[in-house]
């Protein structure tokens, strides 16, 4: 049971759950324990992400270069990496997160899955150990912002699966606008009291796109999935994204930055369809 927005009972009032016991002897304790666990998990999220990004920074230069070309699709040279935070809205940071979560190294593993495989030999703190296995399949994905919850985060919807998600990241939510599309890495962290779905937090910065991009972005993803299924008939979104989640970066790169240009987006979708499906 969650009590978002409900008035808080006094410590000696009867508990809201109807148990007949005082609040302080019933759900208050449980809520306090959950809140401190949530805080510990949030801290673990921060330190695990920093650990993963440090692995990315230490990666082989050759791998970083190959990944860079895939992500930026020839738009920039690797030597420009340092400029991209400025020029492409945290582009350098977004690329490093993608490199860590999505790019498969020579052994076929991402840096995240490699760390998860060696978890038993590692000296990861217990809460990071608890989080890491759930992060292995996190990939760059698009989400629509459906509701802003002041000081508490936002309700998002996965643009590919239509699944609703809670972004509990109140800090990141300050930068969100209603109905916009964000493209980023959402990691599950804590599970609210009585809920069966995790709260999500943003790992690194997201790209922010205007609401009119939602429909063409979904069409673009559908074309890629249809093309991928020619060789992998049973593939779903996760199988596609394990291979080529950089397509979302390519989509972002064709978006106009000064004024809306729906024709340009439609042309790009048509070209993609022609190229991948021959239609
Ligand atoms: Zn109670």
Quick rundown:
The protein is α+β, with helices and mostly antiparallel strands.
Explain the overall architecture:
This protein has a seven-stranded mixed beta sheet with strand order 5-6-3-2-1-4-7. Helix content is 46%, strand content 12%. β2 and β3 form a beta hairpin. α1 (27-57) crosses α6 and α5 (111-117) packs across α6 (126-135). The radius of gyration is 21 Å and the shape is globular. The longest helix has 31 residues, at 27-57. With 279 residues, it is of the alpha+beta class. Bound molecules: zinc ion (ZN). Residues 15, 17, 19, 26-27 line the site of zinc ion.
Query: SS-based structural class?
Result: alpha+beta
Tell me the β content. Answer: 5-15%
Distance between the termini: 51 Å
* H/E element sequence: HHHHHHEEEHEEEEHHHH
Uncertain segments are none
Helical stretch tally: 11
Bound molecules: zinc ion
- Tell me, what's the shape? globular
Largest sheet: 7 strands, mixed
Radius of gyration, CA atoms, in whole angstroms: 21 Å
User: Percentage of helical residues?
Assistant: 40-55%
Total number of beta strands: 7
Mean pLDDT: 93
Spatially, the strands of the biggest sheet line up as: 5-6-3-2-1-4-7
Question: Notable features of this structure?
Answer:
seven-stranded mixed sheet, 46% helix, 279 residues, 11 helices, binds zinc ion
């Amino acid at each position: 049971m969650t009590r978002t927005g409900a008035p808080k009972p006094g410590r000696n009032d009867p508990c809201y759950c109807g148990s007949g016991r005082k609040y302080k002897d019933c759900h208050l304790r449980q809520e306090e324990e959950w809140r401190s666990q949530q805080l510990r998990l949030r801290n673990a999220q921060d330190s695990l992400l920093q650990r993963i990004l440090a692995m990315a920074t230490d990666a082989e230069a050759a791998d970083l270069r190959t990944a860079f070309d895939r992500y930026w699709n020839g738009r920039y040279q690797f030597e420009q990496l340092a400029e991209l935070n400025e020029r492409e809205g945290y582009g350098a940071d977004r690329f490093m997160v993608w490199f860590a979560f999505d790019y498969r190294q020579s052994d076929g593993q991402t840096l995240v899955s490699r760390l998860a495989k060696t978890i038993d030999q590692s000296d990861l703190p217990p809460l990071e150990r608890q989080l890491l296995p759930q992060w292995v399949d996190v990939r760059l994905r698009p989400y629509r912002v459906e509701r802003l919850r002041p000081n508490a985060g936002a309700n998002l919807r996965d643009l590919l699966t239509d699944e609703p998600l809670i972004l509990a990241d109140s800090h990141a939510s300050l930068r969100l606008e209603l109905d916009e599309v964000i493209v980023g890495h959402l990691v599950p962290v804590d599970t609210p009291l009585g809920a069966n779905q995790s709260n999500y937090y943003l790992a690194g910065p997201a790209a922010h796109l205007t609401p009119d991009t939602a429909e063409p972005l979904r069409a673009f993803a559908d074309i890629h999935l249809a093309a991928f299924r020619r060789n992998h008939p049973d593939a779903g979104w996760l199988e596609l994204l394990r291979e080529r989640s950089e397509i979302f970066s390519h989509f972002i790169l064709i978006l106009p930055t000064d004024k809306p240009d729906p024709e340009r987006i439609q042309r790009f979708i048509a070209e993609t369809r022609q190229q991948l499906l021959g239609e």
